[in-house]
Design brief:
By secondary structure, the chain is an alpha/beta fold. It contains 15 helices and five strands. Helix 5 links the parallel strand 3 and strand 4. Helix 4 runs parallel beside helix 5, helix 7 packs across helix 9 and helix 12 runs antiparallel to helix 13. The structure holds zinc ion. The site of zinc ion has 9 residues, from helix 3.
Length: 348
Amino acid sequence: MAENTFIPPPLPRLYPWHESVIEQMKGAWAAGRLPHAILLQGAEGLGKRELASWLAAAVLCETSTETLQRCGKCASCLLIAAGTHPDYFWVRPEEDKQLISVDQIRDATTRLTKTSYRQGYKISIVDPAHQMTVAAANGLLKTLEEPTSNSLLILITSRPSSLLPTVRSRCQKITLSSPSAAETLQWLQTETGAAADPALIEFTGNAPLRAREFADGRFSSLDSDMQGALGALVAGRVDVTHVAAEWTKKNELPELPNRLTWLDLWLTSVARMGIGGTADLFTFPARSAHLPSLPATLNISAIYGVVDQIRALKAQLARTALQRELAMESLLIAVLQVIGPPPQELRK
Ligand SMILES: [Zn+2]
């Protein structure tokens, strides 16, 4: 059996946007119709793991009888909090690996067929399920088709379409949806005690947990850095080679996808304003203190061409350092062509 590097599973936690899913599960529990396999799907940054952990804790909780709940005090709840519940197993890619192997899945499914240590349910969670190898996914099919009693398998994914259709069709799908932007803003305000920037919601794709990660100054410093860099490029105070080299330096790599997301949203916002002909449509970022003034006539299709180029680069960041730097350089040249002053002014 595969050795798992021990990383404690996430602790159970519910967020306001989990409510409808919890109601649905409580209904199934009360009716004695808890599915044996759940595909928990939804975007990143919605707390799917904490929700799965809560579900497992509630199913295993020794005070859960008629109502599905987690008391936090019984022996089962304490074992879960300590990460040592013998009937609860969490499978993730092993350290330094991208994929979940067939051995790991065999380990998880074998546990579901054994007798429960605590006379209750046995639960295995596969996270993220779209990172199973094809052999691992096939290894799940028997468990999905012939489940043992009192067993629950939860597959967590943000990319359900990457799962084998045979796996998908044999699970009950539970979809976790994003709250509205207004709800996310309100939640962030409660969490951080400060008003949140609406541009942050757009930047994080309205994923509340990701937004919270960026709320404490991280987004605003990225934002002013990007605005400053664009302003300096347009004014000719720095050149693209320098900026491309800075952004693709090794220690800058975690930030590069964020820079590209920022550029994507900013240019999309510029295009929106160009199409609608009104500055009110320019909504990203919210503040524009350092931004260059844009040319009077915008070439909308050229802007969208650059947006496509940004997305292509984002999808191929795993290239060599030199390729990344060159791609960034040509991207910045393209950005300057669509937003910069006419070439004769640059030459002055
Ligand atoms: Zn309990």
